[in-house]
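User: Round two. Same drill as before: sequence, then structure, for each protein.

Assistant: Same drill it is. First protein:
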Amino acid sequence: MTISKTCRALQHTILSGILAMSFYASSLAVAQAAADAPLVQDQAILDKVTSYLNNLHTVTAKFLQVAPDGSIRTGTAILQRPGKMRFQYDKPDPQLLVAGFGLLVYHDPGLNQTTNIPLSSTPLSILLAKHVKLSGDGVTVTKIRQPPGEVQISMVRTGKAAEGHLTLIFSTAPLELRQWRITDSQGRVTQVSLFDLHQTHPFPDRDFEYIEDVNRSPDG
């Protein structure tokens, strides 16, 4: 091979390498743009949902709850941000779940048992916070899904994923809270669906307290 042919071959090799590198760089740019696009879209969704929740002050609704054992319960719910909630279950087993003043209290009159736990140790504290933030130090969003007509956002309290996680489910036309799923520290899932959601005036503090009826006999 002459020097001239050798030079041309070397030039061809270099040119091919440059073209290959250019194509590779272009592919990376396209791939990066594709990867970044959902992040921008997700942030827009989070901003919209955050604004909706922060404008949700006091609402009432009917609810249907599916417990981890598959049992189904219904009742009336009040959500009053910040920090207050009341779930009054329908008869024949009128249990009561109230959140207020930093506590989550569950009373089962059938068993005559009352359980108290700090609200801050439950995923519900995310929903009932004074200022809902779905990003930053307090909350970590783990997944966003958008099936037709819905937005599903799963989240944990940052650094406390072992306590369980919360999935909020919204309709999109209009944007409205329709359901949440709580997965506890043992992996058990409780699902609550809301119906006939209405904003209303604040309720008195006593509606978010459990006050034991000392006059009630053990037999009810």
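Second protein:
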Amino acid sequence: MSRAFETRCIHGREDSRLNDAFRAVSFPIYQTATFSHIETGHNGSGFDYTRESNPTRTHTEEAVAAVESARHAIGFSSGMAAISCFFELFGRGDHVVCSEDLYGGVFRLHRLVSEKNGVGITYADTSDPDELAAAIRPETKAVYLETPTNPMMHITDIRRAAELAHSRGALLAVDNTFLSPRFQNPLLLGADIVIHSASKFLSGHNDTVAGFICLNDDRLAEELRLLAKTTGASLSPFDSFLVERGIKTLAVRMERQQENALALAEVLNGHPRVRDVCYAGLAAHKGYELNLSQASGFGSMISLHTDTPETALGVLHRVRLFTFAESLGGTESLVTYPLVQTHSDVPQQLKDKLGIDGTLLRISVGLENSDDLIRDITQALEG
């Protein structure tokens, strides 16, 4: 009997290989660095050392794989650790095409690490299939994209991107952090790899940092696990526990957050101090129909341009329910200033092209009452 998404959030997948000896309803935290051996080459449990594997992390990896419809999920100490491990698949002379609208830390990774390793990076508007196709070269090994993008909420056709990548012998990797498995499953649309910053919606409480790579290819999963073990950026037992706890409420959290986001976006879209609202749940959004064709929802991330930088800065200091902070996806609503926070490492020329300027705010809508959130953002805009 196949399990619905909400059931998988609570119970994981049917073929879990782990059971607690004491039948604990909440899977325990195995807070240990190492495991004893019965004899040389055999420890009896399948676990040797927590950097390599740990029962709590394995149980959480199974939970993530279950909701992402993946055969494998690999847990990392952060979303950037997961992204870094993915890019470690490539070396000198290899080439990767990336969405030009990306979390700023990925640009920093490319500048400080990928370029040093000899990996060529081309940034393209992946929401334009023709531009994506033109960016792929004979030496291209992968296409890496976000959809919706961070922070401008552009939508890329995952099926088409998979076709283009695979026709050139390249992998397609999709960062699915913004919509989460509740609303989008890129592996079912042709992607080879899905990446999550699990600090965000998967955990959902702004209390832990974690990352995951999800995939179906056994050989590639083995290679990534070896890289994770070697580089040492493994998810700790306690943080694994927090992620799994968060996944249990993922479905209900995201549905309510999306309701709040749509109500807020509609109000912002008509406010005189707001020039434009970037939210795929608005019918006027350029990617609205495309997102409907490949996702079951729009999530709860909104970006907007205010009329002036002064208005934007005023909002940051006048909000009372929203918290002026980086990150996203938690129970509390947050407002972020991408220009100097999340996207400070984006090259200036690209910031100008994308519209990442002093008027841009990014909002992560939480679980508060929607009327309270609307009143708070309205008073903050109007000063």
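Residues 38 and 342 are 49 Å apart (CA to CA).

User: Perfect.
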